[in-house]
Each structure stands twice: as C-alpha cells, then as structure tokens.
Specification:
The complex is a heterodimer. Chain A is an alpha/beta fold. Chain A has one domain: DsrEFH-like (Hypothetical Protein Ychn, Chain: A). Chain A is built from 5 helices and 5 strands; from the N terminus they run βαβααβαβαβ. Chain A has helices at about 20-30, 65-70, 75-85, 95-100, 115-125; strands spanning about 5-10, 35-40, 90-95, 110-115, 130. In chain A, strands 4-3-2-1-5 form a 5-stranded parallel sheet, sandwiched between helices. In chain A, α4 links the parallel β3 (about 90-95) and β4 (about 110-115). Chain A starts with a strand and ends with a strand. By secondary structure, chain B is an alpha/beta fold. Chain B is built from 4 helices and 5 strands; from the N terminus they run βαβαβαβαβ. In chain B, α3 links the parallel β3 (about 65-70) and β4 (about 90). In chain B, α1 packs parallel to α2 (about 55-60). Chain B is globular and about 35 Å long. Classes of the chains: A alpha/beta, B alpha/beta. The interface between A and B is medium-sized, with 20 and 19 residues.
Chain lengths: ~140, ~110
C-alpha cells in the first residue's frame, strides 16, 4: 500500500483522553500495513511530543517508575518514527502558534513546526483524512 | 452510492448527541449508501448484550444494510467478552479500520 496515505488531525493534549491512544494505534496499524501517516497536532496536542516527559512511579501500588513502565505519549510517538521507513513514512507537524502559546517547543526528534496550510495540503493529497476533535 | 465510515467513540449514556450519529447512519443507508459504523472507546458500551437502549438493534431494524463493527481492544478494556456482544455486532481490530480508511473514496467521520 505504498501509494496510500492517511492524515490525522489531533487536538487533545497528553493523558486527557483515550482518543490519543486510539489515534496512535491507528497510526501504528497503518505503518504496519505500509501506509504512510501524516499527523497534524493542533492546540493541546502539540504537547504530545514534548521531550521532557518522564515516567512516574505508582504511589498506590508502591512501584517504581521502572517497575511501572508507564508509557509516555512522546515515547509512543518516538517508536512510531522508528517504525516508519521505506514506503511507509510518518510526518508529524505541530502547529506553530499553538506551540508558542504553550512554550511547548522542546520535542523529540521527528516532528516539525508548521500550520493549518500543511493540514490543508495533506488533506488534498491523502487517501483519507480523519479529523478527531476534542470534547 | 457512496461509502461512509462512521466512527463512534462515545456512548449514549454520557452523550445524547450520539443519537444523531445513529440517525445519520440510518438515513445514509436508507438513501442507498454503503455504511459501516465502527464502535470504539466508550462507543462499544452499546455492543454489550442486554445494553439498554438497544442502539445496535434499533439501528439494524431501521437500516438492516448497516455494518456494525466493534473494536476488540476497546471491548477488552471494558471487560466485554466477544461472545457477549449483542446480535449484529462484528468484532474487528484497528487494522480493519485502517483498511477502510485506505479504501479510495471512503468518507470517514469521527464522533
């Protein structure tokens, strides 16, 4: 499916909603099938790729961060970039205005700064576009 | 005839506007379109056998041509066993959703 591309727009910030997990699952499944993925992160979603996210312990269970293995969104997305390659590419754009508003500019490797024009262009070029709004 | 993929992530217990989404699925089928309703996240709560209101049963009665799929991951997270889903629901993985998104001409709507 080298000629297929799915574009996804996201608005929810990290750990706000199950929707983020679902969107990342869709991206992972698409890459596994050789389908390229574009993600336009808007509003709170620009924080999904913040490099400084760290795992935490579980004080209720008394487990350490290492034992807990709590997944971070940045770690998940970094794994998607590692998975992408060959015909199945991953492009991730963080909305620049949203980044500036939040001071959320220290990202993992992979995402780039952009704006709604990128999303418009992708939506014209992609096989399908999935717009996932916030609540 | 157009192909529609309606993705329902919400349940009718918290969001009354899910009723409009089911109405949309019904009306699209009744107008001759190919419609798949893909339930995921809390959207799968209606797929539990015995759930009231019986949104899936009502939809299939009004529009038998609609295909209703439920995300197996979301079912598992909520303790809904596959053999306890209501009639008319097919269990599917997220790969099935991706296949439909990659289908040329498929119109996808997330709710």
């Amino acid at each position: 499916m080298a000629d297929k591309t799915i574009t996804i727009s996201l608005m929810d910030g990290p750990y706000d909603s199950e929707t983020t997990t679902t969107a990342l699952r869709i991206a992972e499944a698409a890459l596994s099938k050789g389908i390229s993925v574009n993600v336009f992160a808007y509003e709170g979603a620009v924080s999904l790729t913040l490099k400084g996210q760290t795992q935490h312990p579980n004080p209720v269970k008394g487990t350490t961060a290492e034992q807990q293995q709590h997944p971070t969104t940045a770690g998940f997305i970094a794994a998607l970039f590692e998975k992408a390659g060959g015909d199945a590419q991953l492009q991730w754009v963080n909305c620049g205005l949203c980044v500036d508003e939040r001071g959320a500019s220290d990202w993992i490797d992979g995402p780039r700064r952009g704006g709604p024009a990128d999303f418009y262009k992708w939506s014209q070029e992609s096989t399908n576009t999935l717009v996932i709004g916030t609540r | 005839m157009a192909k529609y993929l309606l993705i329902e992530s919400r349940d009718p217990y918290e969001y009354a506007d899910t009723n409009y989404f089911y109405d949309l699925a019904r009306d699209l089928v009744q107008r001759g379109n190919d419609v798949t309703l893909f339930l995921l996240q809390n959207g799968v709560l209606v797929a539990r056998s015995g759930a009231k209101p019986d949104k899936v049963g009502e939809l299939r009665q009004a529009a038998p041509g609609v295909r209703v799929l439920a995300d197996e991951f979301s079912l598992r997270e909520r303790g809904i066993k596959q053999d306890r889903t209501t009639a008319g629901v097919q269990v599917a993985d997220i790969g099935a959703l991706v296949d439909m998104l990659a289908d040329d001409g498929c119109k996808a709507v997330w709710h």
